[in-house]
Design a protein that fits this description.
Number of domains: 1
Shape: globular
Strand order of the largest sheet: 4-3-2-1-5
Number of helices: 1
Helix content: under 10%
Radius of gyration: 13 Å
Strand content: over 45%
Number of strands: 5
Distance between the termini: 47 Å
CATH class: Mainly Beta
CATH architecture: Roll
InterPro entries: DUF6812
Structural class: mainly beta
Length: about 80
């Protein structure tokens, strides 16, 4: 039995304290909304950069788990447009 291929999707996540930019592994035909709904308590993020709300980098991490209940906004990084 062959597993479905997973793609790395770069996302920007806002919590009430942090801005996190990193990658999540999603199946290629899955919408981000469906991924979040089906996620358990934590979202696994790789290649993460964690900033405060003033966009000052606090740290980088190869891997981190984010408690799903802490997510305020999540958006694919390709859809973020500077103002």
């Amino acid at each position: 039995m062959q597993e479905e291929p997973q793609d790395r999707t770069k996302v920007r996540i806002y919590t009430d304290q942090f801005i996190i930019v990193g990658e999540i592994a999603m199946f290629s035909d899955t919408r981000l909304t469906d991924y979040i709904i089906s996620a358990h308590d934590f979202i696994a993020i790789t290649h993460a950069q964690v900033c405060n709300l003033e966009d000052k980098v606090l740290f980088n991490a190869d891997f981190l788990n984010l408690q799903k209940d802490k997510v305020v906004i999540i958006v694919p990084e390709t859809m973020v447009k500077p103002v």
